[in-house]
Structure formats: C-alpha cells, structure tokens
Amino acid sequence: MKARLVLALAVLGLVGGVASGCGAEDTTPAPATQKALAAVAVDDLGITPSSYGLAPDWYHPGPLKVELRWHPGGSHDTHRLALDARPDQDPPGCPPRSAPGHCEYVEAGTATAVLRWEEEAPEEDPGFVSLDWWRKGERHTASYSGEQITGDPRTQKNLPVSVDDLLHLLADKRFGTTSTRAMVDADLAKWPKDTSEGDMVPATAATVARRVQDAGAATPRSGAPADVSMWGAGAVGVVLEYPGRELTVVQVPVSAPRRPQFLAAWHTSNLRDDPAVEVGWKTGAAKAIWRDEAGGVWVVASVRDARITRDPRPRWVRPGRPGHDVQAIAGWHSSFSTYELTAEASQTPSWFRD
Which stretches does UniProt call biased (Basic and acidic residues) (predicted)? Predict the structure, then answer.
C-alpha cells in the first residue's frame, strides 16, 4: 500500500526526492523542519494539501508545528491536520473526567499514546480527533478536524484519516525532531515560498498586548508595558486601562525566581473545562493563572475593579462587567507562549504605547 502511495505522489509531483527511478530514498538523518513533517504526512497518508499553515492558531512551544489543509470534493479547506514534534520529558495523560470531550489510552507498543476527541456541536463545530504519541522524551502530536465527529473515531468509517493512520504517522521514524534528508528536501506542491511568518521571536510587551487583543479582551483606552521586575529576567507583560478598571497580563518563564500563586485572601477554584487554569477573586480584584510547565510559561491575568465584591464569574459572559476580561484571557490562554510569531502576532495594537 505504501509503495503505491509513494509512486502516486511522485507521479503527481506532490513529493519530489521521496521516490525516484534513479535510486532509493535518502534516509540520511537530518534535523526536522515544518516541511519535513508535512512531507512525511503526505507520504504516509496520501492526502493532497491545497494549502499549508506555518503559524497555525493552536499552541505548542516548539518550532515544528505545521497545518495541512485540503478540501476533498469541495472548494474550501474544510479538512485540517495539525502536526507537531517536540522534546517533552512527561508522557501524555488524560485530564480529569470532568474535562470536556473523551480521552483514552491506545495500544502503541513501547510508546505511550493518548487519543482525545470531541464530538460535533451541530451547526457550530465539527469536533476533532487528536493523538499524542510519546517515547523516550519526545512527543508527536496530530490533530484532525473537518468531518463531523459523531462518536468514537476508531469506529467511524467516513474519516479521511483514521486513528490507525495517525498512529502510523506519528510512529514513523521520519516523523520527529529528527527526520531524513529526503523529507527535508521534499518538493511539496503549494508549499509557501515565504516561510518567514512561521519564524519565532522572543515575546515582548507589544506582542503580549496583541495577544490580549486577539483573545477577545475589550479595547482599552490605553496600554503600556507592565512592571515585571518581581518576576525576574524573561517576564513580559502589559497593563490595560479601562474606565473604572485595570487589566494586567504577564507571561512568566517557569524559571522565574518566584511562582505565580494565590495568597490566603483569595477565593480560588479551577476552570471547569480546563483544570490547568486557576481562577480567584477577592474584594476589588479577580485573577486567572494558567500554568503550562511543559511549555515553559505561566500566564497571569488580573483585573482591579472596585465593583468586585463577590465571585464575578457568573457575570463574566457579558462584556463590560467585572472580570469579563480575565475570562477572555483564561478562555484563550493557548494564544500565549514564551515565543510569538514575527508577522501577525507581533503587530502592535494602535492603543499600545511603549
């Protein structure tokens, strides 16, 4: 089967240098690139991407994340496959049963593999399937969305890529932080000529301000860099001013000399749909702390507002109410990382002042 896929891809010009009548594939080890991961997926799965995303809107700390998009039988990129490979000393696991969606361990030989999926929300979201594969300190991830997920994806017959396909892809020796020269040099049709938008640079107060804006916080009267001296080197943040309230968002490296935490005066709990986010309030203030140890970053969002005299969360859903902006940040915490994109995400909002 694989030989037929390789031959077909070579004829269509989708992958150059993978199969050739002049010789075997060059299996010399080489540091992986985004294109290498994409090439392995095209080779293994037989899909024909119509476009690629080098800076997809989902979070992982590594530089290899890439998204393949295609539209079988249609004119829109309705099918997406997000890929990533990165060092990670902690094997994946399933969240508490109270978390949304489904999660199960799947058989993967000597590796650890965790399957997650969420079923469709009619007329809103088709759902997704995600597989994490971990072995010897390296994690590989593949997430598919497009076809409506109606139940356990292992038994759903109409998916263009099955769970077994994803497992085969992530276990491929060419998929990882090290690939092969053939995959690195592959000639992928429609691969973008300008790949600079996927480059990563250290975060600044301006990029944090942009991510706050993208996360859905209300437009402030003004914004400026926050005082992050208490967190030490590498911390960046922004202070946003609103009528009657102040919002501060800070990114803190896990190597910081002190850890973000709630003191005894705070009333705290975890977000129901994401136990990694702790929220709290006290008179005049509300706060959310998202801890991502593997990603190397904490995000702390806090709002000061004299109107906060009790738990503001029941009112977070309405813009302009106390704590709404903290909910926006907590709900979109995956927009943050120690690094940001050089293109869109680094554009400074008009309201921000250095």
Answer: 77-89
Structure tokens at 219: 């437009």
Q: Where are the alpha helices (DSSP H) in the chain?
A: 2-12, 34-45, 163-171, 181-184, 205-214, 324-331
Find where tokens 């497009």 sit: 146
Is residue 34 helix, strand or coil? helix
Output the pLDDT for position 346.
Answer: 57
The closest of 58, 170, 67, 60 to 114, measured between CA atoms, is 170
**Residue 280, φ and ψ in degrees, nearest 5:** -160, 170
Cβ neighbours of 30 (radius 10 Å) = 17
Token output for 29: 């080890």
Q: What is the pLDDT of residue 272?
A: 62
pLDDT value for 74: 55
C-alpha 172/C-alpha 74 separation (Å) is: 30
Cα dist. 58→21, 62, 65, 131, 346 in Å?
Answer: 39, 12, 9, 15, 16
172-194 pLDDT, tens digit per residue, is 999 999 999 999 999 999 998 87
Assign 3-class secondary structure to 174-220: CCCCEEEHHHHCCCCCCCCCCCHHHCEEECCHHHHHHHHHHCCCCCC
For residue 88, which of 64, 53, 105, 54 has the smallest C-alpha distance?
64
pLDDT of residue 36: 97
Q: Half-sphere exposure (CA, 13 Å, Cβ side) for 210?
A: 17
* pLDDT score at 19: 38
Q: Which residues of the chain have pLDDT under 70?
A: 1-23, 55-62, 72-77, 98-99, 123-124, 196-202, 271-274, 292-295, 313-347
